[in-house]
Structure formats: structure tokens, C-alpha cells
Design a protein that fits this description.
By secondary structure, the protein is α/β, with parallel strands linked by helices. The chain folds into 3 domains: 70 residues, no CATH class; 213 residues, Vaccinia Virus protein VP39 (Rossmann fold), CATH 3.40.50; 101 residues, Tetratricopeptide repeat domain (Serine Threonine Protein Phosphatase 5, Tetratricopeptide repeat). Helices cover 50% and strands 11% of the residues. It is built from 19 helices and 10 strands. The strands form 2 sheets. Strands 6-2-1-7-8-10-9 form a 7-stranded mixed β-sheet.
Length: 446
């Protein structure tokens, strides 16, 4: 009995110590630990304890309290970026077309202003530049700022040399146009690299928008799903302040519901995940971006050309396993690569437990599978469904979004998330998700 009590006390102490580290990361970068899992946090702590030659967690904790550099190092250890060029190709196709419209409004009064936050190791902002150049824009007609909280990933972005993992899919013509092969690495052309200004910054920094002109286009994708709801809303408000009237904001597939519920309106272009401010003025203007009247919404004036800038084959499944974390960088730089989906047998066992009413056991099985095999769309869907069944709609919604992050056309996750949004009064968001689900059904039947 005594040994049992000692074990319980020890477990409680470990839990309390872990909570301290989790709260520190929450304050520093807004991280919701559940979005990455405690295993990631614990591994980062062990890594830094070893690197600093600390005797134990308590000694390392004390060092964290007096060293801003070590706090930053811990953030770096949590942030494992994973991204690639032209992720969500439809969004870059649309960007090039929107940019032409925007430039015609400005009548050469100034270059387009574009921001990528978080930018991780640079694949997104450099894709923006290549898409605009391929779309016929002259280099002097736009400029791109790329922000991230991680100095380490910014250093990689600054070198602009990438391995094969940064190039995915079948449409790699841009690699031939803009990269030179050096051994087994690809170096980006200086004409693209020089168009991007790299800076260390945090989207949650209250002063971020005060020192900048609003942007015509804001890219912030697959970031907010790693925050709790209050932090999500805080970050979204900061992003809105960065967006110029009539501009457009590019987000990730799992974040569309959050945007539509909080003052943003989708442009309605499939698989582009692009929004504008719902109350954007319809009055055209060529004044500077500080003129809050702004031009009319882009969606109302968009003329789609016969051919997009890039037209990769449409697929109902990702061509490669999607990462469990997009760039958490910025607020975290973030991303760790997802392992392949859980096996059919393992998910079938979870389904059998759920169907027999053994919800608690099914959730334990999900936790065990996540620990051993890592994130997958199918597993996150079952997490969502089990929480949905138990009446925990907030948690269910977050898990469905994570499933859609890994697999944007996961039909079941789309359908269940649509029902949740509908129950909360978000009819427009629910309709968009059902439309995506119906496209997936039609495509799968071809």
C-alpha cells in the first residue's frame, strides 16, 4: 500500500512539473499542448536537459526562469517544421489571378504587399513569388514579407537550399525554372529569393500590426488549429488588422469554420481556402492602404482566365502523407511529419469498441494508437466522433479539423463537422463543408 501511495505522489509531481512547462509554452507562443501531444513536449524537455547538462527537470526549470535564450531554445525544440512548395496549389492559382485584379485597381500607385506568417523554412513565401512571376507580374509590382517566431527556420529559409522532401506532387515544372541542382540539393534562384524579406516575429505580438501597413494578401495557414479557442480568436483579430480593405486572407482547410464564424467570408473558389473581411467596402479606391474605405471586395470583380497559372491533377487523396503539424512556426514554426494512416484492423477495433458503447475504452485505444503510430486523418476522425457522441462538441470540432488538415477531403469528417457548425448557427460554413463532401463522393465514384 505504501509503495502504491508513493507511486501516486510521484505521478502527481510529474504532472505538475509538466504543466509548468506547458504553461510556459502557452505564454511564449500560444501553444495548446493537446494539439501536439504531451509526448512532443516531454521529448523537447529531455533534449534540452541533456543539452544544458541540467541534473533533472527541476534544475532545468530554474534555468528557464533566468534565461530568455534557453526559453527560445525550448521553443525551437518543440518546433519541427514540415512543409513543401506549392502546398494547396489551387490557392496559388487564385493568388495570381487576384493579384492581377488588385494591381489594376492600384494603377501603379504602389507595389502589392503580401505577408506569409508563419513562413517556416520558406517554401510558402517563395511559392508566392514563383506563382506571381508565372502569372505575369513584373518583379517590381509586388513584395513579400515572411515572418516566423523561429530563428532556426528563418536561417534555413535565408539559405534557400532544399532537399527532395520540399518538392511533392507531379507538377514540378517550377523546379526546373527556378532551382539549380547542387549535388542532391536544390538552390533557389536569386531572382526569387531577393523578393522575400525574412523577419523574426510572433503573430500574437500586440505591436505587430501597429508598425506595418496593411497587406493586400495575408497567408496564415494551419496555425490556429494548434491554439485553444481564446488564443485562436486573439490571433484571428491580429490577422484581420493586418489585412487591407478589399484584400484576401489564405488559411488552411481545417480553419475555414473558425474564419466563417468570426467575421470572414469565403470567396467560394474550391480548394483555395481564401477569405475576405465580411464587411469589406464595395467602394473602389486607389488610395493608400491606410484609407479605410478600400477597394471593393476582390470576389465581386474576379475574372477567371481560361487557364490557371498552375493546374496539377485534382486528387481526392493526398499524394503523400500529410504532416501532423503545419508550420507552427510563428507561433510555432511548427510541423512534424505524419506517419501513414493507422491500419484498417486497428481502426476497426476502435470502431467495434465504439459501436458496443465502450467509449472510454475506444478513447484509450485511440490514445494508444496515437502514441505508437502517430497522427492520421482516420484516427483524428475517430477522436472527433467519440467526443461528439459524448457531447463534447468543442473537442469534437477540433479533432474533425485536424482530420481535415491531414486529408482535406475526408468525407466523414466534413459531414460531421458540417453538422456541428449547423447546430451552432453557421449555415454558410456547413453548406461549404457539405459541398466539399459531395465533391469527394462524386470523385470517389469515378
Amino acid at each position: 500500500m505504501k509503495s502504491g501511495r508513493c507511486w501516486c505522489v510521484m505521478q502527481l509531481m510529474i504532472q505538475l512539473m509538466n504543466e509548468r512547462f506547458e504553461q510556459l509554452l502557452k505564454r511564449k507562443i500560444g501553444l495548446d499542448v493537446e494539439s501536439v501531444g504531451q509526448t512532443v513536449i516531454e521529448r523537447a524537455i529531455r533534449q534540452r536537459i541533456k543539452a544544458t547538462a541540467s541534473t533533472d527537470e527541476e534544475a532545468y526549470w530554474q534555468q528557464l526562469q533566468v534565461s530568455a535564450d534557453e526559453q527560445h531554445a525550448l521553443v525551437e525544440a518543440v518546433v519541427v517544421p514540415e512543409t513543401w512548395f506549392f502546398r494547396y496549389p489551387e490557392s496559388f492559382n487564385l493568388l495570381a489571378r487576384l493579384a492581377q485584379v488588385r494591381l489594376s485597381e492600384l494603377k501603379a500607385s504602389r507595389p502589392l504587399r503580401i505577408i506569409s506568417i508563419p513562413c517556416s523554412t520558406g517554401e510558402e513565401p517563395y511559392s508566392i513569388v514563383m506563382a506571381l512571376l508565372d502569372g505575369g507580374l513584373a518583379p517590381e509590382t509586388f513584395r513579400v514579407e515572411a515572418l516566423d517566431v523561429s530563428e532556426r527556420v528563418l536561417e534555413v529559409a535565408g539559405k534557400a537550399v532544399y532537399g527532395r522532401n520540399s518538392f511533392r506532387g507531379d507538377n514540378l515544372g517550377f523546379r526546373e525554372r527556378y532551382f539549380s541542382l547542387e549535388a542532391d540539393r536544390y538552390r533557389l534562384a536569386e531572382s526569387v529569393r531577393e523578393k522575400v524579406s525574412l523577419q523574426c516575429a510572433n503573430v500574437l505580438d500586440a505591436s505587430l500590426h501597429n508598425t506595418r501597413q496593411p497587406y493586400d494578401f495575408v497567408f496564415c495557414r494551419n496555425l490556429l488549429i494548434y491554439f485553444d479557442r481564446p488564443t485562436q480568436l486573439k490571433a484571428l483579430q491580429a490577422l484581420k488588422r493586418l489585412l487591407a480593405p478589399g484584400g484576401a486572407m489564405f488559411t488552411g482547410p481545417a480553419e475555414t469554420g473558425l474564419f466563417s464564424q468570426n467575421g470572414m467570408q469565403a470567396l467560394g473558389v474550391p480548394l483555395s481556402f481564401v477569405f475576405k473581411l465580411a464587411d469589406a467596402s464595395a467602394t473602389a479606391s486607389t488610395q493608400g492602404l491606410n484609407d479605410r474605405s478600400g477597394p471593393q471586395p476582390l470576389a465581386a470583380r474576379l475574372k477567371l482566365p481560361a487557364k490557371p497559372v498552375m493546374a496539377p491533377p485534382r486528387q481526392t487523396k493526398p499524394v503523400a502523407p500529410r504532416p501532423a503539424l503545419s508550420s507552427l512556426s510563428t507561433v510555432t514554426g511548427k510541423n512534424t511529419q505524419a506517419k501513414p494512416d493507422a491500419t484498417t484492423d486497428q481502426l476497426a477495433a476502435i470502431e467495434a469498441l465504439a459501436n458496443s458503447g465502450r467509449t472510454a475504452e475506444a478513447l484509450k485505444a485511440c490514445d494508444a494508437l496515437l502514441a505508437t503510430q502517430g497522427p492520421s486523418a482516420g484516427l483524428f476522425y475517430w477522436f472527433g466522433l467519440l467526443h461528439d457522441t459524448a457531447g463534447s462538441s468543442d473537442e469534437a470540432q477540433n479533432y474533425y479539423r485536424k482530420a481535415l488538415y491531414l486529408e482535406p477531403e475526408h468525407i466523414e469528417a466534413l459531414s460531421h463537422l458540417a453538422m456541428l457548425l449547423e447546430a451552432r448557427g453557421d449555415q454558410a460554413g456547413a453548406r461549404r463543408l457539405r459541398l466539399r463532401a459531395s465533391r469527394g463522393v462524386n470523385n470517389s465514384g469515378r
